[in-house]
Amino acid sequence: EKCADVCYNAIAAGYRRLDCACDYGNEEQVGQGIARAIQDGLCQREHLFVTSKLWNTYHNPEHVPLALARSLSDLQLSYVDEYLIHFPISTQFIPIDVKYPPEWTNMEGKMVVVSNDMTATWTAMEALVDNGLCRTIGVCNFSTQLARQILSTCRIRPSTLQVELHPHNSQEKLIRFAREAGMRVTGFSVFGASSYLELSMATESDLLMKDPTIVRIAAMKKKSPAQVLLRWAIQRNTLPLCKTSTPERMEENRNVFDFYLTGADMQEINGLNKNRRYNDPGVFCTGMGTFCPIYD
Question: What is this structure's pTM?
């Protein structure tokens, strides 16, 4: 209920990149915030970089343009700057007028995984670029092998790989692979476990914000632990996505360009890696009665 105001306030605070998705269930409100910001002269459309994502239920080629059309309608935009395949998981199609967002389960509360040719989905994504509905296309939550499948057949190469990245899950090999393949790397859950406590997918002991190494480096730099984690991501040449609903945190999260982490600082933070993934369908989908690993 406050998403439109949060979006507007973020643009007012200087944010120009908005990471959206059908599955987040708030693109209509984001669109209201964008429209109001443009109307009030805070920015112009071309100053924004808006991402949306293709949900699992829309992987059949004929459903891909339908999914983006709904996102564009909700966002009140004629194009998005980036459109990503949200997960390399194809599930049973649910018509938009029946359930939207369709989420992980069907109308009977079951997650039904279906066979699908991801390269055919990608061809449909390429057509979106051809038709001017998105500027670039990419993938989320893909492993190196899944990305290779797309790269081996594509006409338009994926511009972006968006994956879970934080010091507990640094994924150095995947980042190197993506860069060498010409993809930008965007990191979600950059604060680690923080977003997963309320979902019972992490515990207080997992919090990077309270990790002694992060806290100590933050104190030395006279910065917050969140700012250190964002700076670590930036110095790895990755784009960290952060979220907050308060203007004060919005300002704090942007104020990360007046300090630098030394090589020793980076090495210490890199040493926190546990290959600990919080957003793992191979784990949480079992609660929906389906075993659906994508990383193993």
Answer: 0.96
